[in-house]
Specification:
The chain is of the alpha+beta class. The protein folds into two domains: about 180 residues, no CATH class; about 170 residues, no CATH class. It contains 13 helices and ten strands. Strands 2-3-8-5-7-6 form a six-stranded mixed β-barrel. Strand 2 and strand 3 form a beta hairpin. Helix 2 packs antiparallel against helix 9, helix 2 runs antiparallel to helix 12 and helix 9 runs parallel beside helix 12. The protein starts with a helix and ends with a helix.
Length: about 400
C-alpha cells in the first residue's frame, strides 16, 4: 500500500468516527496543557532565580551566624549569638577587597498591629548601608538613616505585603504601628521584590534601625548576618577565605575546630535556589506525566474497541492483498495523528493558559520553542506507544476468522 493512500485512509477513518477521535484526543489535550503549564512555569522560575542571583550580586558574599545555618536561623527561629558588630567592623577595617557591607538582624513571625488590624511579618534590623549593598531601598518616603541609628529612632519602613494587609487604601507614611511593646512611625514603603529564591515573600517585611532592634525590640548584642559587597567579582574566592580566616581569629576558634559561622558565595545561593525550584518542578512534571499516561490509556482502550468494530474490514483488506505491516502502519498512524492533533491543540491552550495564569496569580512564566518541541514529541510518543498493542492485534488477525466474526 502506498504511503499517500495509507495516510488518506487513516484520516478517512478518523473522520468517519469523529466522537471516537475526539475522545482519544481529549486526554492528550489535557496532558499537554498540564505539561505546557508546568514547563512554562518551571522556565519562568528558573529565569527568576537567575535574575535574583544577578540582583544578589556576583560580587557579593553572605556571612551568617551559626555554622551552616541558613540566614543564621537554627531551630527556634533566633540567630545564634556569635556574630557581633565587632566582626562587621573588623571585616570593614581589615579586608581591602570589601567595598561596603551591611550587618543585619531579623525576627520572623512577629505580630504587627495597626489600630484594630494585625498581621505577622519578619522584622529586619538594618543599617543605612542595606540600601546600596542590597540595591533595594524605599519607593515612597525615606529609608533608615544614620541619624535614626544614632538616636535609636522608633521608625520603620514597610514592605508591600504589610502595606496591603494593614493599610490597603490608606497612605501608611506617618501612621504608627506596634511591634511587640514598641510603637513605630512609618517613614517609607519598600520597593516591591516578590518571592525570594528560597520561596519566601520578600515584601512581608518591616525594616527598622539596627540599633533600635538590638536595644529596644530584641535586647540582643549579636547579628543574624552580614552582606558583603566586594570591589570586584573576581575576588570572591579570595575574599571568602580571608573573611573566614579573620572571623575565626575574632572568635578565637582553635585550628581543627568547626566554624560557628558560615560564608556563602553567589554560586551557593544559586544552587540552593535551583534545588528548591527543581524539587517543585519535578513534582509538577510527575503530575503532568500522569495526565499523559492516563490519556495514553484512553487512546489504547478506544483503539482496541475500534478493532472490534472494524474486524470485518481488516479481514476484507487482508483477503484482497493487504499485508500485516500495512494494517499495523495504519492503526499506528491513526493513533499518532490523533495524539499529535491533541498535542498541538493542547499546546495552543497551554500557552494561552500560561499567559492567563501569569496575569491572575503573578506566577512567572516563560514560553520558548522547547515547549513546542516537547509537546509534539510527547504527544507523538504517547500515540505510538498507546497504539502499538492495538495495531499489533489488528495486524495479527487472520482474514478468514475476521470475515466470519
Amino acid at each position: 500500500m502506498k504511503k499517500g493512500r495509507l495516510i488518506k485512509e487513516s484520516f478517512k477513518q478518523l473522520g468517519k468516527n469523529k466522537l471516537r477521535s475526539f475522545l482519544m484526543m481529549i486526554g492528550i489535550v489535557i496532558g499537554i496543557i498540564a505539561l505546557t503549564l508546568v514547563v512554562s512555569a518551571g522556565l519562568g522560575a528558573q529565569k527568576r532565580i537567575l535574575d535574583r542571583v544577578q540582583k544578589f550580586g556576583l560580587d557579593s558574599l553572605m556571612v551568617f551566624s551559626g555554622g551552616g545555618r541558613e540566614m543564621g536561623r537554627p531551630v527556634g527561629g533566633q540567630p545564634v549569638a556569635n556574630l557581633k558588630l565587632d566582626d562587621a567592623e573588623a571585616l570593614r577595617r581589615e579586608i581591602p577587597d570589601i567595598h561596603e557591607l551591611a550587618p543585619f538582624n531579623r525576627k520572623s513571625m512577629s505580630e504587627i498591629i495597626f489600630q484594630d488590624l494585625n498581621t505577622t511579618a519578619t522584622i529586619f534590623g538594618v543599617t543605612p548601608e542595606w540600601a546600596p549593598v542590597w540595591d533595594w531601598t524605599s519607593r515612597e518616603g525615606d529609608f533608615i538613616t544614620y541619624e535614626d541609628m544614632d538616636r535609636m529612632a522608633r521608625v520603620a519602613v514597610v514592605g508591600e505585603t504589610v502595606r496591603k494587609e494593614l493599610f490597603d487604601g490608606v497612605n501608611p507614611i506617618g501612621e504608627f504601628i506596634q511591634v511587640g511593646n514598641v510603637q513605630f512611625e512609618i517613614k517609607g514603603i519598600m520597593e516591591i521584590k516578590g518571592t525570594s529564591p528560597g520561596g519566601g515573600d520578600m515584601d512581608n517585611r518591616i525594616y527598622i534601625p539596627l540599633s533600635t532592634y538590638m536595644r529596644r525590640v530584641a535586647n540582643v548584642d549579636y547579628l543574624a548576618g552580614i552582606k558583603v559587597r566586594l570591589r570586584s567579582h573576581k575576588h570572591v574566592d579570595k575574599a571568602a577565605e580571608e573573611i573566614a580566616s579573620l572571623i575565626r581569629e575574632q572568635h578565637r576558634i582553635a585550628p581543627g575546630m568547626p566554624d560557628d559561622f558560615s560564608v556563602r558565595k553567589p554560586d551557593q545561593v544559586k544552587k540552593m535556589a535551583e534545588n528548591v525550584a527543581g524539587t517543585f518542578n519535578l513534582l509538577l512534571i510527575i503530575i503532568a506525566g500522569i495526565s499523559l499516561i492516563a490519556g495514553g490509556v484512553v487512546v489504547s482502550n478506544i483503539m482496541l474497541m475500534s478493532i472490534s468494530e472494524r474486524t470485518k474490514e481488516i479481514g476484507l483488506r487482508k483477503a484482497v492483498g493487504a499485508q500485516s505491516r500495512h494494517i499495523l502502519s495504519q492503526f499506528l498512524l491513526e493513533s499518532t495523528v490523533v495524539t499529535l492533533m491533541g498535542g498541538i491543540l493542547g499546546l495552543v491552550l497551554g500557552v494561552a493558559g500560561s499567559g492567563i495564569m501569569a496575569r491572575m496569580t503573578g506566577t512567572p512564566v516563560s514560553i520558548s520553542w522547547e515547549i513546542g518541541v516537547l509537546g509534539v514529541l510527547c504527544s507523538s510518543l504517547v500515540g505510538i506507544i498507546a497504539g502499538l498493542q492495538p495495531a499489533r492485534r489488528a495486524s495479527a488477525l487472520q482474514p478468514v476468522e475476521a470475515l466470519r466474526s
